[in-house]
Specification:
Blueprint: E1 2-5, H1 11-21, H2 30-38, E2 42-47, E3 53-64, E4 67-77, H3 86-101, E5 105-110, H4 114-121, E6 126-131, E7 142-147, H5 150-155
Parallel strand pairs: 4-5
Antiparallel strand pairs: 1-2, 2-3, 3-4, 5-7, 6-7
Bound molecules: coenzyme A.
Coenzyme A is lined by residues 21, 75-77, 82-88, 109, 113, 115-116, 119, 122.
InterPro entries: AcTrfase_RimI/Ard1, Acyl_CoA_acyltransferase, GNAT_dom, MshD_Acetyltransferase
Pfam families: Acetyltransf_1
Domain N-acetyltransferase: 1-150
Length: 156
């Protein structure tokens, strides 16, 4: 498995995986992925030995040097490839990018998504709030989670 910048030709595959993973929660369209890339988001794909996309993740950072803030916009791994470290590798790569910018990282995750919440907690995120009915059409709640900027982690 290797990580590389997400290619536009893989967006159709992302959309396929989105439908599998987020069926009840308004999965992203191809247009949504294109606009994330157009906006300069840091998007990575995870590719198997046959160069097939098996997962993807995206981080968006705003601000200016000395004052950046990042958000994990998405992370997904094809169900057939879950539990093999792909999600961890994608998340770590996004966090390395945020650390380059010395940015705190925010994300939203369904409150019932134990696996993802556990993954984030093991990578320095804590829950800072709940957004009621954040996901539609399911109406599921989200935790907002935050991982402090690298310098803030060092002085803790
Ligand atoms: C969350 C997700 C990205 C993790 O990807 P993954 O490739 O399965 O992750 P990994 O194999 O790196 O495993 C991550 C953790 O989940 C645990 N895990 C993996 N498969 C598991 C399973 N079947 N049951 C319970 N825990 C499992 C692993 O033990 C690992 O924990 P560790 O850090 O203690 O080793 C993936 O499950 C996914 O795409 N889920 C659906 C989409 C989603 O929820 N995205 C996040 C939205 S905010």
């Amino acid at each position: 498995m290797k990580l590389a910048p997400l290619r536009r030709k893989d967006i159709a595959r992302c959309v396929e995986i989105e439908k599998q993973l987020f069926a009840g929660d308004d999965p992203w369209s191809a247009r949504a992925f294109h606009s994330e890339l157009d906006a300069g988001g840091y998007y990575l794909g995870a590719y198997d030995d046959e160069d097939r996309l098996v997962g993807y993740a995206g981080l968006v950072s705003v601000g200016r040097p000395g004052d950046f803030e990042s958000s994990v916009h998405t992370i997904g791994v094809d169900e057939a490839y879950q539990g093999q470290g792909v999600g961890t590798a994608l998340l770590r790569a996004l966090l390395a990018q945020a650390d380059e910018l010395n940015a705190p990282v925010f994300l939203e995750v369904r409150t019932d998504n134990d696996r993802a919440v556990g993954l984030y907690e093991r990578h320095g995120f804590t829950r800072i709030g709940v957004r009621k009915r954040y996901y539609q059409p399911s109406g599921a709640d989200a935790y907002t989670m935050k991982r402090p900027a690298r310098t803030a982690q060092e002085v803790r």
